[in-house]
Hints:
alpha+beta; 6-stranded antiparallel sheet
Amino acid sequence: MKSLTLAVSMLACSMCAYAQSNLAAIAKSLENGQSADVSYSEKRNPQTKKLVSTSLIVGVPDNKIQEVKNAFEKDRPNSTSFSKVGANVMNISFSDDEASTTYVLVTGATDPNNQSIFYGVPITNKAENVLMQTVKYKKE
Length: 140
C-alpha cells in the first residue's frame, strides 16, 4: 500500500511540474536569449533565506508571440485559472504544494493604455511584447 501511495504522490508532483511545462520552457528560452530584455527579482525570508517569491519580466520578439500564445493554450487544461482580455492580454495560473505560478502575456506593452496591467509597477523593459512570470512559494 505504501508503494502505491508513493507512486500516486510522485505522479501528482510530476503532473504539477508538467502543468506549466510549455510556458516554463518558453520563459527560460526567452530569458536566456541573446537579445533578451530581462528584468528579474526575488524576495527571500530574512530569517531562513528561502525564496518567498520570484518575478521575471522578459521581452517577447514579434516572431515568438504565436509560440507563446500556443504554450498558453497547451498548458491551459492543467491551469487553476485562465483569462484572456481582447487580443492584448493572456493570464494563466497554476498551483501545487510548492508554489503558485502566474504567467501574463501582454502585447502592446508600451501602449500607455496597457500599463495598468503591471499593477502600478513601472517596467524598465522596453519591449513591445512582454511575458511575466511570478512564483509565490508556499513554504518559507
